[in-house]
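User: I want to check something. If I give you two sequences, will you return the structure for each one separately, not as a complex?

Assistant: Yes, each is folded on its own. Here is the first sequence with its structure:
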Amino acid sequence: MPYAVILSNAAQTDLDSIVQYVAVDNPTAAEKLGLELIDVAMSLETLPYRGTQVRKNQNVRKLIHSNYVITYRIVESNQTVQVLGFTHCARIK
């Protein structure tokens, strides 16, 4: 049975910011990137454990797509994947 994928408010804000930033120079690329990131996040519906655990927080997993990290949490009790955020790799400390 597939998991339900839910974007948190923070993840939606991250995604909107990424698309808006890229759209300044290339609106077509921005739209394509936004759709790619959503597709990768939605793929967690059938493969939720494909990402790796975050060292500092064992309840959070990360999945890398191109130059972006998608962080998420799996909630087994109701079979959901909560997408917590989208971050460009250059912004990770």
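And separately, the second sequence with its own structure:
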Amino acid sequence: MIGSTRQYRPDLRTAKVLMVDDTPANIDVLRKVLKPEGYKLSFASGGNQAVRLAQYAMPDLILLDIMMPDLDGFMVCQQLRNSPSTADIPIIFITAKTDIQDLLKGFHLGAVDYITKPFQHAEVCARVRTHLENRFFLKQQQELVQKISASEQRFRQLATWMPIGVLQLKDTGQVVYCNAPAKALMAQHESEANEQRYWWQTAADYQQEHLKQQWLEHIEIEQEWGCEFDCHPNIKHGYYRLRVMPMPDACDWVAVLEDISAQRQKTQILEQAKNAAEIELKHKADFLAGMTHELRTPMNAIIGYSEMLLDDVLEGQVRNDLQKITEAGRYLLELINNVLDLSKIDAQKMELNLQSFSVIEALDKVYGIIKPLVAKNNNQFDMQLEMKEIFMYSDPIKLQQILFNLLSNACKFTCNGHILLRLQQKNDVGIDWFVFEVQDTGVGLTPQQIEHLFQKYTQVTNPQMHNVGGTGLGLVLSQQFAVLLGGHLSVTSQPAQGTAFQLKLPKNLKQ
């Protein structure tokens, strides 16, 4: 880049230098001075020869003697400047004359510098290198300008055919170019093309100053940026989005202008529908919360009275009927509790009762409840613990519900098999975890069944155990509870080989 010439020294070993002098001794001196610099040197002993050689070899610099017999240096310089192919070659006059008029004449004809005889070696090298560097950077600048011009031309050709609004902007925010869709969005006509117009003038009056300040702050960062704004009412009633990015190898910005009125309207409709759904869900949760007492109270009464009657009736058909009523009541109460808990989770109304408790005592309570189910299908139950005394800060009721659901499922889908509850303690990234594993040797699950296992309102059926009841809510709740307690629930299974659930929870939920 031109601005970095002081830091960057170009390699000039391929530079071509033409020396013109009718005195061989002078040519010899110049050759000895410049040869160590590595330049490609050529020589001419007269003016006519110099003109022909310059047009053929196209040197990067000419050292030109003024006093020559056929054509003097002034005439050679004039001919070279009049020819388009050699007009921009820098010429340094070599002269013994120091008359100011001669020097001014040389500069008037287009010379860039002069060297006086006798030569000072260091001066010759310095002046030659300086003008070669200037020519090198000038060429580089011209190439860069051509690239920018070509890039801008390609940009405008592409923008012309694009169906969306495309703008080219200055750092000031002034619109340099806009394609037809952009003109339509900005209500700009061809007669306005040369007017000083800024992109934020497309916005409503109350937003223009704010958008201008945002723009001026953003251009310092030179990164992609975007904004949305109300369109000026004189143009249309709508909502626009502008996205800008810096143009490569240029100081301008390219921007895309879109009318997003319809999209915004759809978003607002969806937002209103979402808000309405959330309000309805809240009302539903409040209603279900209020129904909890109304549903559970009569069911507890039915179960309580049936259990009291069972104590009085020792045998016979009546006792069998009472047992069926009690079991059905307990099943219905469990179903009611699951539905209500799931509704609370959906409405984000589920509360945690966090406390420090003994995990061993919690597991004993779960085993006391699950023990009849283990015996029902003639299964064996084992519990493996890595430690004797374990304390945990979490919600003990939620933990017991999860383990009960996992163990009851294992009991339902395992006959004459083995059920294992294992507890391990692990440390991961500085956090202590409890890992509860429930394994069985039951019918197992297929990959397709596992895929839907934790989906709400989806019941996974197993043809091998068609007589086993259940709604599938227990596993869904277990997975939701695990998330509430800061952990997760996973499963692995093979058909006819059994299933293993892994519940991973933090030892201290405060962490």
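Because they were folded independently, the notes below concern the second chain alone. The chain has a mean pLDDT of 84. The first helix runs from residue 24 to 34.
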